[in-house]
């Protein structure tokens, strides 16, 4: 059995290294159709065992054309990061070690790695001492965790125990969200029993910042409320005025939750943390490590300034579980909705230790600098309109009408030089470019701009009527 493992893991490492070494040469997008993928992978289930080495080699060969080069420095879609070398290696070890990170008893090292990484992050972000944390699959589950804690705390203040009595007959809670919130907020609230028709929606301005004056009116009657603010709007990267919102929520006795999936990472940068000023005053925060920390999927983190409602909302006990013990170990199951779970703390620990404070700050600032370079380069292309200012790492732009914008985007993606996604902004089609990968360098920016230049030439894009675009410089 040992020899079999040696052979298959050694070969798997070779395949993995070949994949990473080829990122600059291969197309960023897939090179196969859905029908072809189904044919390549859709083999009959064999009656007899197949040697593991055969399985892995044939899987890699069949899947490779259908892989998107997300780790590439020219993947700019969906605010997705790559994988730092230390984080990828730690993730491999996580799989090999195969620890069930639900209980300390099942994985003592996994539990302590989460504990250390959580405390490093809490200190890095400047969150209150004693804030609790949970390592979860992604920001969606981080919202679920944080908002479950908020629901518990706000209903408990009203004399209601939601874990025992449910929501039927519970006191009224006002759930306040921005018109430009991320879809994961609605989904988390729906799973917690708050239907979308019950939400109070606050208007947002052009870049997507919550209207503070409108929020003041919403909170004026002091109905118990949970307010969801945002650090980093998904299209523009804009930040809500978190200081003003914190002032209002504190005065109203409301719970403030911040969706900071990628935006809260600016707190790691001395040059950019002013954008999230006031974030430390929130009651809970949700973010992704598989974005700007460049940890492999999946990896999200929930923080809560109030450990008691956090634990009460998601913890579980059973007679057969081995919880607690000498030295008061941290059982992750007390803080996450997951029961059996992957040891996500190892890759986060490895990423943070490999970067250090300076390295993480440099990573964030470098991505933002590349975004500004992109905005300046795109602004020089015929017919291109850069929409708004570049706040952090998001660039939003379009070419003429909707059809032209989509045609230029399709041309770039089909070229294989870069991968980006379309979106809708102000009721019109646009292209969203997100710089979030540690691999992205000046050559990746040059190649991508050249691909757009070729796409514009190929599409016969007319000159823009929008006037000169903004410089894309970060606000000071």
Automatic annotation (TrEMBL):
Pfam families: Pyridoxal_deC. Residues 456-476 are annotated as: Disordered. Residues 465-476 have a biased composition (Pro residues). One of its GO terms (molecular function) is transaminase activity. Its cofactor is pyridoxal 5'-phosphate. PANTHER family: GROUP II PYRIDOXAL-5-PHOSPHATE DECARBOXYLASE (PTHR11999), MIP05841P (PTHR11999:SF70). This is Aminotransferase class V-fold PLP-dependent enzyme.
């Amino acid at each position: 059995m040992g020899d079999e493992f040696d052979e298959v893991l050694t070969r798997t490492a070779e395949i993995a290294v070949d994949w990473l070494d080829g990122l600059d040469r291969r197309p960023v997008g897939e090179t196969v159709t859905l029908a072809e993928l189904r044919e390549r992978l859709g083999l009959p289930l064999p009656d007899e065992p197949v040697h593991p080495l055969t399985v892995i080699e044939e899987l890699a060969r069949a899947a490779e054309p259908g892989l998107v080069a997300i780790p590439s420095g020219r993947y700019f879609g969906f605010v997705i990061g790559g994988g730092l070398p230390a984080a990828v290696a730690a993730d491999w070890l996580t799989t090999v070690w195969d620890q069930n990170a639900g209980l300390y008893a099942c994985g003592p090292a996994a539990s302590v790695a989460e504990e250390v990484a959580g405390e490093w992050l809490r200190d890095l972000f400047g969150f209150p001492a004693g804030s609790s944390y949970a390592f979860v699959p992604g920001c969606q589950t981080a919202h679920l965790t944080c908002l479950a804690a908020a629901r518990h705390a706000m209903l408990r203040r009203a004399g209601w125990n939601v874990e025992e009595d449910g929501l039927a007959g519970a006191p009224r809670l006002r759930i306040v969200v921005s018109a430009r919130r991320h879809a994961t907020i609605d989904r988390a609230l729906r799973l917690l029993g708050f239907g979308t028709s019950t939400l109070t929606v606050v208007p947002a301005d052009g870049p997507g910042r919550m209207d503070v004056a409108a929020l003041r009116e919403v909170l004026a009657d002091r109905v118990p409320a949970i307010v969801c603010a945002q650090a980093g709007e998904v299209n523009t990267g804009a930040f809500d005025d978190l200081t003003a919102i914190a002032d209002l929520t504190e005065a109203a006795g409301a719970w403030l939750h911040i969706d900071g999936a990628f935006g809260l990472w600016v707190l790691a940068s001395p040059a950019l943390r002013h954008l999230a000023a006031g974030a430390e005053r929130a009651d809970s925060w949700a973010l992704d490590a598989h974005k700007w920390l460049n940890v492999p999927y999946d990896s999200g983190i929930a923080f809560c300034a109030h450990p008691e409602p956090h634990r009460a909302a998601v913890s579980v006990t059973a007679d057969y579980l081995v919880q607690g013990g000498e030295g008061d170990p941290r059982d992750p199951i007390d803080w996450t909705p997951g029961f059996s779970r992957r040891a996500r703390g190892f890759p986060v620990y490895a990423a943070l230790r490999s970067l250090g404070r300076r390295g993480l700050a440099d990573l964030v600032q470098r991505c933002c600098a590349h975004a500004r370079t992109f905005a300046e380069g795109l602004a020089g292309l015929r017919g291109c309109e850069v929409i708004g200012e570049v706040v952090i790492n998001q660039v939003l732009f379009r070419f003429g009408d909707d059809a032209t914008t989509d045609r230029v985007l399709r041309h770039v993606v089909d070229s294989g030089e870069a991968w980006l996604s379309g979106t809708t902004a102000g009721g019109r089609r646009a292209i969203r470019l997100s710089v979030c990968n540690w691999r992205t360098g000046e050559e990746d920016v040059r190649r991508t701009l050249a691909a757009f230049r070729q796409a514009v030439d190929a599409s016969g894009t007319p000159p823009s009527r929008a006037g000169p675009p903004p410089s894309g410089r970060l606000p000071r």
